[in-house]
């Protein structure tokens, strides 16, 4: 393969895209569409709903930290199919939810299989399969997420109006079983060439001789923990915004349907930013882009605080889309760049678990603070300042990250 392009790699890039797209059924932006019906059906407050969501997501993060290592040992073809199957089963469970306990179990399954394992398997595969064009491979496969962000909320709103919210989840399960699993198995009929050893020497996936860190070594490295405040910012803040669409719409006096209508703009911005960032990662490295990746998120939080005109919402969604494109591509390539690929699945499982943990804490914490009178606008101001602080931290870590990548 000519390392200057990825034209011959569509099967493997497509498998990553597919897993990222179907992860949407377990992502906050899809689940949040059903928040009103779920709260009404089970009689939950904003804080109660957020706390239940948080506890379930925390449980999924704990399991993910252990289960993520399977990405090192099981082929993407069969592990991915099993993950999509699990997501389908929990989607059926959501269609039959009738109590807080059942809802908590369903949230656990959706978050573990969808947000957790789907994205973990996809991004681990891209990091392992590609080296010279890792940034572009991550950005292309990662496009499944913005396409999902753009289509699934509209799909949910349309299906709810046609068949009701419970049947919408049954349709979701049918798509996973009838489309997702067979297409993934077909795409990966032939496994990608190995990334190391004699068979890798003529492929882009060839990696130079370097130290490949173990998970134990990573956990003993202080710089890893200094990266966590940067890693936590995007999942925490975006989850907080998306899960609170209803309160935001009520506070601002905006029509809730405008959120769903604006998601395609978020998706478009996500796509453009991801593709551009992929090329920048391959040219400058992911570690050198960390410091600027949170800037759009700080701007987005500020817009949401001070904007009153409904027309600000489409602008906000585009800014958040830019942030998603930059951060997903940068972080998708970062861990293989820093720590090598031999143990990438077990290392990334920690990162993914931390990310899921952040999305777990956000709804419960923000909802609890709102229940106790802390204005959402004030919380968003704090989030904007946090992003600025985390960006400065990333800039200060550049020398240490360069040393790790060169080890």
Major beta sheet summary:
none
User: What distance lies between the first and last C-alpha atoms, to the nearest angstrom?
Assistant: 28 Å
- The Cα radius of gyration reads 20 Å
Put simply, the count of helices is 20
Query: According to CATH, what is the topology?
Result: Growth Hormone, Chain: A
How many β strands by DSSP?
0
Q: What's the name of the CATH homologous superfamily?
A: MFS general substrate transporter like domains
Helical residue percent? over 70%
What's the number of domains? 1
Principal-axes geometry comes out as: globular
Spell out the helices and strands N to C: HHHHHHHHHHHHHHHHHHHH
Structural class given helices, strands, pairing? mainly alpha
CATH architecture: Up-down Bundle
Layout of helices and strands, plus pairs?
Elements: H1 10-22, H2 28-31, H3 35-42, H4 46-67, H5 70-73, H6 76-95, H7 100-129, H8 134-142, H9 144-163, H10 165-187, H11 215-219, H12 222-243, H13 245-252, H14 257-284, H15 290-293, H16 295-306, H17 312-339, H18 344-371, H19 376-396, H20 398-405
């Amino acid at each position: 393969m000519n390392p200057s392009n990825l034209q011959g790699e569509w099967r493997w890039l497509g498998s990553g895209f597919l897993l990222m797209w179907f992860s949407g059924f377990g992502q906050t932006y899809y689940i949040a569409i059903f928040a009103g019906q779920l709260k009404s059906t089970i009689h939950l407050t904003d804080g109660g709903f957020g706390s239940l969501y948080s506890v379930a997501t925390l449980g999924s993060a704990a399991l993910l930290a252990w289960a993520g290592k399977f990405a090192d040992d099981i082929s993407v073809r069969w592990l991915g199919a099993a993950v999509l199957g699990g997501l389908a089963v929990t989607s059926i469970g959501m269609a039959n939810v009738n109590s807080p306990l059942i809802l908590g179990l369903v949230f656990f399954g959706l978050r573990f299989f969808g947000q957790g394992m789907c994205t973990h398997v996809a991004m681990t595969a891209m990091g392992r399969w590609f080296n010279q064009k890792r940034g572009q491979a991550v950005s292309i496969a990662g496009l499944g997420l913005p396409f999902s962000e753009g289509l699934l909320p509209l799909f949910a709103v349309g299906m709810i109006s046609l068949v009701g919210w419970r049947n919408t989840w049954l349709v979701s399960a049918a798509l996973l079983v009838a489309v997702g699993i067979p297409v993934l198995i077909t795409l990966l009929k032939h496994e990608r060439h190995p990334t190391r050893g004699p068979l890798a020497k003529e492929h882009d996936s060839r990696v130079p001789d370097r130290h490949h860190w173990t998970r134990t070594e990573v956990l003993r490295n202080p710089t890893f923990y200094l990266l966590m405040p940067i890693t936590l910012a995007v999942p925490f803040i975006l989850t907080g915004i998306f899960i609170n669409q209803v309160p935001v719409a009520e506070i601002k006096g905006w029509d809730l349907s405008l959120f769903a209508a604006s998601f395609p703009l978020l998706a478009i911005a996500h796509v453009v930013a991801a593709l551009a960032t992929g090329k920048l990662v391959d040219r400058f490295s992911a570690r050198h882009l960390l410091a600027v990746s949170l800037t759009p998120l700080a701007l987005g939080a500020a817009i949401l605080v001070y904007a009153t005109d409904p027309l600000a919402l489409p602008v906000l969604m585009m800014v958040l889309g830019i942030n998603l494109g930059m951060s997903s591509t940068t972080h998708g390539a970062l861990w293989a760049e820093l720590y090598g690929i031999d143990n990438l699945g077990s290392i990334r499982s920690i990162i993914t678990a931390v990310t899921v943990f952040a999305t777990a804490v956000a709804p419960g914490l923000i909802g609890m603070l709102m229940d106790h009178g802390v204005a959402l606008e004030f919380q968003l101001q704090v989030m904007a300042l946090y992003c600025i602080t985390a960006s400065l931290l990333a800039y200060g870590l550049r020398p240490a990250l360069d040393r790790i990548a060169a080890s």
